[in-house]
Give the backbone structure.
Amino acid sequence: MLNPVTEKIEENLRAILPEAAFRDLEPRYLEEPRGRYSGSDGLLIAPGSTAEVSAVVKAACEARVSIVPYGGGTGLVGGQIAEEGQRPIILSLERMTAIRETYPLENIMVVEAGAILANVQEAASDVDRLFPLSLASEGSARIGGLLATNAGGVNVLRYGNARDLCLGIEAVLPNGKILNGLKRLRKDNTGYDLRHLLIGAEGTLGVITAASLRLYPQPQSEGVALMVVADPEAALRLLALAQSRLGQGISAFELIGRMGLEFLVETKQNVRQPFETKPEWMVLVDVGLGAGMQADAALEELFMAASQEGLVSDGLIARSEADRAAFWAVRESIPAANRAVGSVSSHDISVPLGAIPDFIKKGPKVIEKIGDFRINCFGHVGDGNLHYNVFPQTGRSRADHENERSAIKRAVHDLAHSFGGSVSAEHGIGRLKVDDLERYGDPAKLAAMRAVKGAIDPVGIMNPGAVVRV
Ligand SMILES: Cc1cc2nc3c(=O)[nH]c(=O)nc-3n(C[C@H](O)[C@H](O)[C@H](O)COP(=O)(O)OP(=O)(O)OC[C@H]3O[C@@H](n4cnc5c(N)ncnc54)[C@H](O)[C@@H]3O)c2cc1C
């Protein structure tokens, strides 16, 4: 049985930590972006060093008090919000933001877990390198949270997800011991790789305090195009054509449907509609090429080749930095438009690439059986990852459909599972998808996960209730 933080425990913690580590528990620490979860209480502690994190975790372990690690609070599955009724330690990494070391020749940067992603991207750019992790929450999400959720984003197609960008981890394990794993090695075949256990564990196996990150050369010529395709099948064939012509030069390949464009208008997002008539489907293609290559020209040639094959019917190629930003704004404003419309149920699914067209064809049929809804399907189609969100019809609200939410979620997840897909492509399990993991997860995997959790965190203090029930 875990204990709430009592005055006595707080007193003990105040004796071992500097005053600066104690911060006011502002409401934002108890809220999350989609408003599905809210915490009721907690003791907010923001340590200033790994040694201080270790002291907190050790004290919490001895007092049998739970800890919820907290990054930027942008997680979409409720992992950063403690369950009602607990009074946990909310352990924020917000004071540990240092870029500890940069090794441009090795393409490596060592940063603390509280560093905000946009600042890490900027620090990489200052040494003429690229840290390619990129997502709409990059102005708030912190490296520890991004690794703990194994975040994806728009550049996974080319550079992989957070896991692929991390070469080493420093973390505090649930007994308070510091795992010194900040290696800068690309080859290190020395048994179990605890880095990969901590990445994606959503704070259930320890607190990530720093990471060595993989950097890349900056592309020398970058370009973006929007291309109208007849359907998702054509989008996939366009992706294959683009990959055969440009290889690894494609950084992002995003699918956008008409409903997403209509939501931008309906919710008055400050973006320009790219085409006079809203297409049923279009893709955003982002390329970054090496020296001596012209991204605009490459995109133009791709468009010509795709037209000859009947894959695209219209297209726009960005001619300036402002165009590029405007094209990306269309894609990146869709989540805000979705929030303004208010989804009944949102899903972050993945299926094998080849199954995307069938999934998109069958989706509306399974939803129709439940009721009359609008579907906004968009996302990182190059990774087989769709954000498949179901909305009320105009004039109705999500509150009108409370009773249908679980049936919708079940139908979408069953469909993804039937294609050999995943019910969480990039957002994680958190508290939102614990039941889904139990329903769809491989039983041997679940048993191994519980065994790992029990072995590394026998008292169960690390983020109880998230990811896996023990
Ligand atoms: C507008 C918007 C767009 C987004 N787009 C994407 C997207 O494209 N792709 C994507 O993958 N995600 C996306 N997300 C989700 C979110 O940004 C990511 O999941 C991000 O990785 C969370 O980072 P954070 O620092 O905010 O973590 P938090 O929300 O604070 O925490 C997330 C989880 O990680 C744990 N955690 C936090 N810090 C640590 C630490 N130091 N050690 C151990 N555990 C820790 C928490 O306990 C929690 O379980 C989006 C979110 C928003 C709001």
